[in-house]
Specification:
Low-confidence stretches: 189-194
Number of strands: 7
Strand content: 15-25%
Structural class: alpha/beta
Distance between the termini: 60 Å
CATH topology: Rossmann fold
Number of helices: 7
Order of helices and strands: EHEHHEEHEHEEHH
Length: about 210
């Protein structure tokens, strides 16, 4: 069903390999969110961003303070999004450096109040608490509106009964994000020239002086 309303969803995947388990989890979270929005009569404009494709541009941005090329478009897309799905692989019990670098280059306030679903992948379930002790605090600092359910997927979660439990967490998280996005007023990207003074008015003021 195609809804009369539409929301913009940007999916950030910080997997380092191709294919990656982070992208696999991101795709499943996206499908669950889109389906839940569709049930609410809301369409979805989805774009998936693979951070590995922007790794060099991120380093340049950190050094110069300015995003270049395709990274500039990604940053603008995130700033205009009604919802974010952000998935990272876990290294040494925390998010990857690539993932952190991306959120480091966003302007302050970019994620203020934006509904956000957090996901992570790793080789063992022992890293699952990284969602709560490392990733969620970072997004709290960025003032994103993270949904209650974060989804961590270890290697054993992709097969057998583990996949059934994972599917349940994905469905719950996707529904939470969809509810938050559907309830958020869609304003679209801000127009930097919306309050510009017409040239004729500026000229009239100059003549009056």
């Amino acid at each position: 069903m195609t809804g009369t309303e539409s929301r913009t969803l940007t999916v950030i995947s910080a997997g380092l390999t191709q294919p990656s388990s982070s992208r696999l989890l991101a795709d499943r979270l996206t499908a669950a969110t889109v389906a839940a929005l569709d049930e609410r009569g809301v369409g979805t404009d989805v774009e998936v961003v693979e951070l590995r494709d922007h790794a060099h541009a991120l380093v340049d941005n950190l050094l110069t303070g300015f995003p270049g090329g395709a990274l500039r478009s990604v940053v603008a897309r995130v700033a205009a999004s009604d919802g974010i799905i952000a998935v990272t692989s876990i290294f040494n019990a925390s998010y990857s450096g690539l993932y952190k670098s991306f959120f480091d280059v966003l302007d302050q306030g970019t994620l203020d109040g934006v509904p956000t679903l957090l996901g992570a992948t790793g080789g063992t379930a022992r890293h699952s608490l990284a969602l709560e002790h490392a990733i969620r605090p970072m997004f709290a600092y960025l003032r994103a509106a993270t949904v209650p359910t974060g989804v961590y997927a270890a290697s054993e979660d992709w097969a057998g009964s583990g996949d059934q439990a994972l599917a349940g967490r994905i469905a719950r998280a996707g529904d939470e994000l969809a509810a938050a996005m559907a309830g958020r007023e869609h304003t679209g990207p801000a127009d930097p020239f919306a309050d510009a003074v017409p040239f004729e008015e500026l000229l009239a003021r100059q003549r009056a002086n």
